[in-house]
Structures are given as C-alpha cells and as structure tokens.
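To: structure desk
From: M.T.
Subject: fold request, one chain
Message: Could you run this one when you get a chance? Sequence is below, nothing fancy, just the single chain.
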Amino acid sequence: MGNERPLTMNIRPGEPPPDLKGYERAGGYTAVRKALRDMTPKGVTALVKDSNLRGRGGAGFPTGLKWSFVPMGEEAPRPKYFIANADEMEPGTFKDRLLLEGNPHQLIEGMIVGSYAIEAEVAYIFLRWEYREAERLLTKAIAEAYAGGYLGRNILGSDYHLELHVHISAGRYMCGEETGLLNALEGKRATPRYKPPHPVISGLWGKPTVVNNVETLCNIPHIVNNGVEWFKGLSDTRDSGTKLYGVSGRVRRPGVWELPMGTTIGALLEEHAGGMRDGFRFHGLLPGGASTDFLTEAHLNVKMDFESVSKAGSRMGTGTMIILDDRTCPVGFVGNLEAFFAQESCGWCTPCREGLPWTAKILQALEEGSGQAGDLERLALHTKFLGPGLTFCPLAPGAMEPLGSALKYFREDFERHIRERRCPWR
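Reply: Done. Structure tokens follow.
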C-alpha cells in the first residue's frame, strides 16, 4: 500500500493554489513536455489504458479504453473536443472542488495531455454554476498557461494546438450527465441523448468528444511522469491509484482525504472522520453520493473500490459517504433525496417525470402521519418500475437505490410511521 498523495501533495488548505511558477517548481507540466516530445497520441492512450485508471465521476469506466474508441488519423472527423466534467452536483460530494480550488494547473495539465492523446483541438471545463471561486482560479490559471506556451498554437514549439475554455453550467443536476452536458454546452435544454452513438464517436456538435471527471484527469500527469507500475502500487486493491474519499454527516471531522484505493469504510469513518459525534450513533451510510444504495454496520470492513462495494450491494459512485445517524429519521432522509431527484428530473421520460414526484409525495405523507396501508408496497413497486433499463437515463434508477435499500434495511422505521400515524423522530 503506497503512502504517496500525488493529487493533493501541492494543495495547502487555507492558502492560495500554486501559480504557474510555483506549479513548475513542483514539477508541473513535465508530463506535457514528455508527452509532446517523446510519446505519440496512441502511446499516451496505451499508457493510460495499461494503468487501469477508472473514471472517478461515479461510473468507473476505464479511462484509456474510452479514449481508444475515438477515431484517429487524417480521416477522423474534425474538430475533436475534450471536456472536463466539473459540474459537481451529486449531493454530499465535494471532492472535485478541492482539486479545482487547490491546484487548477494540475487539471489543466491533465486536460492538455488527454486532448493530445485523442488529437483534440478544443477543450472545455464544464463548471458547476455555484463554483465561483473555482471559476476565478481556473480563469487565472488558464491565462498563465497560455502565457507560458502550454496552450494555444504550437504548444512548446510542437505542431500541436489546443484552445481551452471555461463554460459555466446552467445549474441543474442533469447537466452533469455526459450527454445532457453536451446538449447544455450546445445551448440546448440538458436532456440526455440516446446512445449509441456514444460521444466518443458523435459528441459535441456531432464530433468525437471525450468527457472525463476532474479527479480522473488530475491523475493523468502523474501516470505519464511515473509510469504504470507506480500508479498501480498506490492502491490497496485491484483498482489502481489513490482516491479522494469524503465523509459528511454527524461525524467529528467531516471532510475529504486522498487515500489508497481500497481503504475500508470503517477506516474512513473512524480514523479519518473521527467517528460519530458525541450523542449520535451510526445507523447507515450512502457510500458514493445520494444515488447509491445504503450500507450498514455489517459493511464497515468493505473496501471502498468499485468491485468490493458492488459485491456488498451498492456502488462506490463518487466515493463520498453520507452518514445516517440514529437521531435522523430514515424516512425523512430518503424523502429529502427523492424530492431533490424529482425536482432535478429533466421530464423527458414518463417513468422519471411522473414516478419520482409520486414517491416523494408518498414519503412526505408518511412523515406527516397520513401514510396508509399499502404505501410501502407502492414504494417498492416504484423501485422496480423506475429501475435500470426502464428509463431514458440513469437519474431515476439512481434515485431508486437509496429508496429500495432503505426499505430493505429500515423497514421497521417505515412501518412505525404508518402504525403510529406520525414521525417517531419528532
């Protein structure tokens, strides 16, 4: 298990991020020099593919494999686009914000190398509307990168050109979905697109486009500089690298930490978050943001990697845990999430548009003491009708994950709401 923290080693909480000179003194932009001088675009893609870097935005798709699907060569459609998805709106998730505000040049370097790998001419950082400080810092860092010869025409004297822009999101959850993001970037409503074709073939304005998460891209310079075996050695599991894990809720030290991939849930909760606050007991957790299944005390030894969390019955998602304590009503907790997802549905497909508000209303009725016999069965039916493959995009299936698992693990709490005709936590 490695002890290195490559993504956060140059981040100093409470201090401004490194400027261009500071970033260069710390070894920054050596990956761009190495890639442009010594590597072909396909060589960069092969390196990232061999590293087994999996996407850190939630789905965990292999990054190099995604890049390898992009048409290459003189006959490939032009221009190609490379996009960093910085629309971090998953409830309970704030890991990308740390990277954006703490070391914006690291993301820019990762984007330059990634763009070179797919021969993209134009790149965008699609940024969450509320991340105003990140916008200011990114804009400054991009200007420095242009002045330093890392962006624009003939980068570092090579024949490679890249233009990089910051685009501010419209402020909706759907803008973070890959194809909804592309529609939003084209100035359209952020409804998802039918796939195939996938964006790597027909993306932004119908051209080949790669969309990667911020944390994913921040790994790229370090893989190019240090190699595949070094990257795999950072991990405590089969999934390579480190991971930015977060914990929120009634714990002593909520926050985000870069740790070896595969750190256990229990270690995150007790060693890094400091355990539960005085007067509160652990009741459950969502391991990777709001759209993941609950896990319980029986899962504290589960490693936080894609495969282990899946075997436990949930998803690692963004790797940012939300803790449910014993003084918070599970029904109200889930009802709050379903109200959020109902509000953020784009309304494109009927199951999502109609089903999510219905589940939110049933849960609200339970909380207000007007729940009826049969409500739990109706909620359970929704978890099937809005499941994977029955809606146009993953929003509704994701929304059903906390609901379905709450009915499984906290059913007695739901039944008490109906039996006592009130919320027992009030």
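Reply (cont.): The two ends are 46 Å apart (CA to CA). Let me know if you need anything else for the meeting.
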